[in-house]
Amino acid sequence: PEVTAWAKAPPPPTMLIVPPFVSPELIPYVPQITNRPLEGKLTGSTFSLDQPICIFDKYVKDADDIWLVVAYTNASINYKNPTSPQDLPPYQKLSSTLHYMTLRSSIANYPCTKNRDSTVLRVGGDTACKREYSQGYCNGPLLTSGPYRVKFLILDSNGSKAETYWSQQIHLKIGRQPTTVDGWPGRRSGDMIVITVILSSLIGILVIAFLGTVSNPEEPRRSESFQGRRYDTHHIPPSQAPPPPPGDVPLAHHHATAAL
Length: 260
Description:
Blueprint: E1 25-27, E2 47-50, E3 65-72, H1 73-76, H2 94-97, E4 99-105, E5 120-123, E6 148-156, E7 159-164, H3 190-215, H4 251-259
């Protein structure tokens, strides 16, 4: 009998189930430069943000990480949130990636308590780690004046969980070259000119007084000397006068004695 060979049917294709991409939840908060009257809140390489208070409590768990994303304005337009810790851009590659993540923290550092003093987050204040590639999450100084934009991003074990809005553009201060500094008095205020004139006059008076004391020293008084004999006069009564010495014999008596 003829045996018919039956070909085995190929196995059904394996279906790869990809979890749908879920965009992070949007937190209604816009990071901003602090309005507190602080010295150096905006410099040539750093800026200070208001620390969010009572903002993350509804979105963050204890095990979640809160990050700050710093990006150049043009790079923030098409920015894609990282999906794993390996995708986190380090500070040391800012010049090529045009963005980085820093200030890693947890909800414990953003407590929502009453009567809590507001603090600031200083971005770019760590100069020790800017060349330490082993410390990827460095808060190093900004390389240029920007402009920059920042946002807070919450990550859990599955990736991006929630994020805030991007901030407005942040322009850092630009240092001036010494040759471009205009020292012309006309650019100064009236008060500065008056103070300068008064100080210059006082200095001139002090210099003149000092030179006068140095060039005209007081001459010491000269004591007039007189050479002569010293006589001590005192009164001797006649009755107590001593007899004249032999050398004082009158000349006539001497001649009479010689004739004898």
